[in-house]
Model the fold of this input.
Amino acid sequence: MGDGALLFGGALFLGLSFGSFLNVCVLRLPRDQSLLRPPSSCPVCGERIRWYDNIPVLSWLLLRGRCRDCGTAISPQYPLVELLVGGLWVGALLAYGPSLRALSGAVLGTILLGIAITDARHYLIPDEFTWGGLVLGLGLALASGGGPGLVQGLLGAAAGFLLLYTVGVVGQWIFKEEAMGGGDVKMMAMVGAFLGWQGVLMTVFLGALLGTVVFVPLTLRRKRHVPFGVFLAVGAAATFVAGDAVLAWYMEFLRGI
Ligand SMILES: [Zn+2]
Done:
């Protein structure tokens, strides 16, 4: 087995493991429960889940999506999230090679998926994702760019925070109700640490565009809270992948006018 296979195996293992952990996060964080205790158990019969029934994707398949003890169906969300995060970590390695950029993309993507799930489900973005992600993002910025990298990350975080905070204040003033949740503001500080201030602008632009196209028609008919974090998550992911290319194209475009 070559180094490449070992590397991809490692990325897959890490991705599946973090996917499994993300399942615990999206289940417990919105309820303010500890991530460590108690150990996972079946919500119906209460039996503790044995380690060999807790292996990402495989266990769900072997158990045919049912609890070993009481036969209650286990949501396919569990293996699906594990597969998604596993694919994300392998995909990042494929796209960027064994680099800090790959690690950065995999970490950011994992956090964004967690945010999208909790925001869509509970209209809630846990601090663990935003503040925890902010620390990770700044750490990666420092590791990949040294002092200037850290400054870039800090600037991005400040830009994300201030931009969304301002939108929230102005929105409240115009609509007389909360337009921007505190979770969205903290989320964009986190995104800024990973993507820099230009990335913040592109993320908010894409998120607002997507939110308008997808959600406004629904909202106009039946007034509902908008999980803006979902759209920001998609915008941030798109910016990470294509942001530099789009920015370069835009600069070229401006020069051409
Ligand atoms: Zn059970």
